[in-house]
Design goal:
Blueprint: H1 2-8, E1 14-16, E2 24-25, E3 28-29, E4 36-40, E5 53-57, H2 60-70, H3 94-104, H4 107-125, E6 131-132, E7 140-142, E8 148-152, H5 158-167, E9 173-174, H6 183-189, H7 197-205, E10 206-209, H8 217-230
Parallel strand pairs: 1-4
Antiparallel strand pairs: 2-3, 2-7, 4-5, 6-8, 8-10, 9-10
Helix pairs in contact: 4-8
Bound molecules: pyridoxal-5'-phosphate.
Length: 231
Amino acid sequence: PLRQLADHYDLHLIEDACEALGAEYKGRKAGMLGDCGVFAFYPNKQITTGEGGMIVTDDEEAAMLMMALRNQGRAPGDTWLQHTYLGYNYRMDEMSAALGAAQMTRIEELLTRREQVARWYMERLAEIPAVELPYVAPQTTRSSWFVFVIRLAPGIQREEIARKLEERGIPVRPYFLPIHLQPYLVERFGYRQGDYPITEDLGARGLALPFSGVMTEEQVEMVCRTLQSVL
Ligand SMILES: Cc1ncc(COP(=O)(O)O)c(C=O)c1O
């Protein structure tokens, strides 16, 4: 639908695939659905280069322009002291890139392990009535698990649950906080609590559980058992 909309209004479609490395929509890889696809490699992502990210595109002109912009405006072919454009220093250093390239050689293994951990969580948490599980839409032919976020049933005091879990050695985080209630946007545009009730409801009930590809089934079980007893 977004592609159709973009075509209709002659817009470029930039796909933010930062959390979706390896995911598929109707059998097509995330990052290949727009004119440009963007990935991020901060340490919380499926693979990391410390900081930094990557843009993929099959638009030659856009690629050339972005390569220039990240390199202080030097167009491909410019010498070090030539700056065809006004640009930035957005280069990824080679050591960080090497770290990412090495992880890409075993990306399938990394994604599969995260899928397994998510599956353990899904199966075990389905037994806890106060927990709403992440929803995977039917168009999603492959999920790439970035974080594992549950929603607590309405009326449950999330902060208290989080505190009790932390006391028992299980770190959790509220997730996400609604963007319109971030101080900058409140000050700049005057948004208020109540402007987006669905977003606010979801923001108030989401809880990110410990999640990574190196978790064992016993660790998942321990998180779920503790959550169950705290609830
Ligand atoms: C969906 C999404 N877009 C963009 C970003 C930003 O990535 P970076 O911090 O590498 O700029 C993130 C990172 O968390 C993200 O999750």
